[in-house]
Design goal:
- By secondary structure, the chain is mainly alpha-helical.
- Helix content is about 75%, strand content about 0%.
- Helix 5 runs antiparallel to helix 6, helix 5 runs antiparallel to helix 10 and helix 10 runs parallel beside helix 11.
- It starts with 8 loop residues before the first helix and ends with a helix.
Length: about 300
């Protein structure tokens, strides 16, 4: 904690000019105290209301302007290309797509709702497995320097590998496209959770652990009372990063593996040269990613003990 060191009397004496006297310093201090200081006028209720209205206006207007700019660029792009659909044409096509989102005409012809649910299910499996393995391993790496040194080169070597580079290995091992996609999500989303959890454990103040020793807490009590609450903000940050990575990976993996999923639906519409449906798929992917991110931000805010206190 930063502390402020106030000047002592001796300090004042040393700072006094040699040709002056104590009376001179006292007079200067008195003059400084007597000098008029600007007064801060408290804001009136009307001014506070106007400031509140400005904040609400900025908070609502800025996102609307951003969306308006996106639509303007989209409209300009559509006017310069006869095949590129305009926002209005895409909206008309989206109404038809979402009129029957859960139709099923066979393995490769199902509604966008089934495709989205299939992708979310794979993300849940792959992300859940990564959390089950990555978070405990992060605790162990953070607590044990030997494990930290042992896993450091492995993490440095494998973490930068492109997600799709793992897909052929998954197809070879599992001989099944959905299982390979889940495996790819697992291997790509495990790193943020593991690394952030390990960093959180390493940054626990030593005083906390000393208190646990003084109070003679058991290993389980130390984990539940000291480690877990301290690491939770770091861990939730890793979880947020991991779920974003998982959502990115599943779309790319499904474009290559086929079957059912929003990535496959997007690639299938490209083969049909239906650009309106491709734009609809992009918007659906983006909105779903925003929803997952928002959900996890709410969860992370719930466990941000230091910010709430």
């Amino acid at each position: 904690m930063n502390t402020v060191v106030l000047p002592t009397t001796a300090t004042y004496d040393r700072a006094t000019p040699t040709d002056g006297s104590a009376a001179h310093a006292a007079a200067a201090a008195a003059a400084h105290a007597a000098a008029p200081h600007p007064k801060v006028r408290p804001a009136t209720p009307q001014e506070r209301q106007r400031a509140r209205n400005r904040r609400v206006l900025v908070a609502g207007l800025a996102p609307l302007l951003g969306l308006g700019l996106l639509l303007l660029l989209w409209e300009i792009a559509s006017e310069r290309s006869q095949q590129f659909p305009s926002p209005l044409a895409t909206w008309m096509s989206a109404q038809k797509v979402f009129a029957h989102p859960f139709y099923d005409n066979g393995p490769n012809d199902v509604g966008i709702g089934w495709n989205l649910l299939a992708s979310l299910q794979r993300v849940a499996y792959g992300f859940g497995l990564a959390a089950l393995v990555g978070i405990p391993l992060g605790f162990a790496i953070g607590r044990m320097p030997f494990l930290n040194r042992m896993f450091a080169p492995i993490i440095s070597l494998l973490r930068p590998v492109s997600p799709l580079a793992w897909l052929p290995i998954g197809l070879y091992v599992f001989s099944n496209a959905p299982a390979a996609a889940i495996y790819t999500i697992f291997i790509c989303s495990i790193w943020p959770m593991m690394i952030n959890t390990a960093i959180g454990v390493q940054r626990i103040p030593a005083d906390y652990l000393n208190v646990a020793r003084v109070l003679d807490l058991s290993g389980w009590q130390t984990f539940t009372k000291i480690l877990l609450p301290s690491v939770m903000p770091y861990m939730m940050t890793g979880v947020r990063l991991s779920v974003g990575t998982a959502w990115l990976v599943i779309v790319a993996a499904e474009m290559l593996t086929g079957g059912t999923g929003i990535g496959f639906w997007l690639w299938n519409e490209w083969n049909n040269l239906n650009l309106a449906h491709i734009l609809i798929a992009i918007l659906v992917i983006g909105i779903t990613g925003m929803a997952l991110e928002g959900l996890l931000m709410l969860l992370a805010r719930r466990f941000a003990y230091d910010e709430r206190s």
